[in-house]
Amino acid sequence: MTATIGDPAPDQGQDQGRDETVCVPLAGPALPLDEARRRAELLKVVADPVRLQLLSLILGAPGQESCVCDMTAQVDVSQPTVSHHLKQLVEAGLLERERRGSWAWFHLRPERLEEIRAALP
Amino acid sequence: MTATIGDPAPDQGQDQGRDETVCVPLAGPALPLDEARRRAELLKVVADPVRLQLLSLILGAPGQESCVCDMTAQVDVSQPTVSHHLKQLVEAGLLERERRGSWAWFHLRPERLEEIRAALP
């Protein structure tokens, strides 16, 4: 039998003999772009050294909650910088903020951390 | 018994009655800064929509490997952009690159993905 134009090439295995002029997708479809963007935004929240330090403090504290004053004492950045990062963690839904007397307290929302874990490939 | 200076305050629970003028750290120490930076760099690698899409293609492909031509066909960015992101994934140790004929193939290093998983709080 003679191959005619349009016949598939004989299967030679994908590691060798692949037709280098034609590329037939073997994989796919990709993660939809909207979902990829959503996951990337979640992962960006924890892709910061100061936010990782603040989360480590809260995760290690009794009841998984900590006061902004406690945290400022433990990291090598200013209190406004700590507050800035805590605000980002609250906006991302990872922490909840509560006023107690003069101080702001923050507690972890572990279900949100699980969502971030699920956003990894 | 009369409290003297230096006596610890009676335990009133951490949710109420906390001395608002003095802040004694309850948590800590924080994750060391060097380690926090290392983890943040790992997480930044996957905190990008296109890189998440490329990883989804490779994870879903036979043998967890894919050709750059396959991947370009499946995402909505140009081939140079795909190559740029693949290079970043290689530099981060998440992918290994191999030349086969005219095409570059990429396969996953799952142990590196596990390191990224462990970098999460």
UniProtKB/TrEMBL annotation, chains A, B:
CDD domains, per the entry: HTH_ARSR
Molecular function as annotated in GO: DNA binding; DNA-binding transcription factor activity
Keyword annotations: DNA-binding, Transcription, Transcription regulation
UniProt keyword annotation of Transmembrane helix present: no
Keyword Transcription regulation among UniProt keywords: yes
InterPro entries xrefs: ArsR-like_HTH (IPR011991), ArsR_HTH (IPR018334), HTH_ArsR_DNA-bd_dom (IPR001845), HTH_MetalResp_TranReg (IPR051081), WH-like_DNA-bd_sf (IPR036388), WH_DNA-bd_sf (IPR036390)
PANTHER family linked: ARSENICAL RESISTANCE OPERON REPRESSOR (PTHR33154:SF18), TRANSCRIPTIONAL REGULATOR, ARSR FAMILY (PTHR33154)
Protein name per Swiss-Prot or TrEMBL: ArsR family transcriptional regulator
Native species: Janibacter alkaliphilus
Classification of source organism: Bacteria, Bacillati, Actinomycetota, Actinomycetes, Micrococcales
